[in-house]
Design brief:
alpha+beta; 6-stranded antiparallel β-sheet; 6 strands; elongated
């Protein structure tokens, strides 16, 4: 017997309801992923950038040398070393760790001061520092309330240079610091 088999049916294109269902599932998965990431960011806050402590310390020391040259070129300042500072949790997680510093994130600063600096000397040095930083693209971040100092911030690194003169003691104070960054495992101050 010669039987004729029917030709296989061509696969029909998906129906409108099936396409809608697939689109809704994909949108739900995407929304769940976004909410998970958003929840993570809400809890932890923005991540700190990873930093090499040696590179940061060298950058601060180089800036300190330039500031010192701008002031008067003579080394009247005490020996300087870079200190680290505490950094804290971000996001909602910070409420679970109030006043608890993170061990894996540190800020860096280098401070020094000179006393008995005449106002004219301090002002001239401050003006040289202000001009150089402006020419190098640093942005003014703050003026001291007394008008006897200022702070500049580097737009790329977030480093800050703070220079103030205090009339009562004739103290010229300089702080150069870098913002919080995640340090490598095993970092020892």
């Amino acid at each position: 017997m010669n039987s004729v088999r029917p030709a296989p049916a061509a696969t029909a294109p998906p129906s409108g309801a099936r396409l809608l269902r697939t689109a809704l599932v994909l949108a739900g998965v995407a929304l769940l992923g976004a909410m998970s990431w958003g929840g993570y960011r809400l809890w932890n806050g923005a991540p700190y950038p990873e930093v090499d402590p040696n590179v940061v310390a060298m950058r601060l020391r180089e800036q300190a040398e330039r500031v010192e040259e701008d002031l008067d070129g003579r080394s009247r300042f005490e020996a300087r070393h870079v200190d680290t500072g505490a950094c804290y949790y971000r996001g909602l997680r910070s409420f679970a760790h109030i006043d608890e510093a993170r061990r894996d994130v540190r800020s860096f600063d280098l401070d020094w001061r000179a006393t008995d600096v005449p106002q004219a000397t301090a002002r001239a040095g401050q003006e040289r520092i202000r001009n150089r930083l402006s020419q190098q693209g640093w942005k003014p971040a703050d003026e001291h309330p007394s008008g006897m100092g200022f702070r500049f911030e580097h737009p790329d690194t977030g480093d800050k240079v703070d220079v103030g003169w205090y009339e009562a003691t004739g103290t010229l104070a300089v702080s150069i610091y870098a913002p919080c960054g995640k340090v490598p495992d095993g970092f020892d101050e």
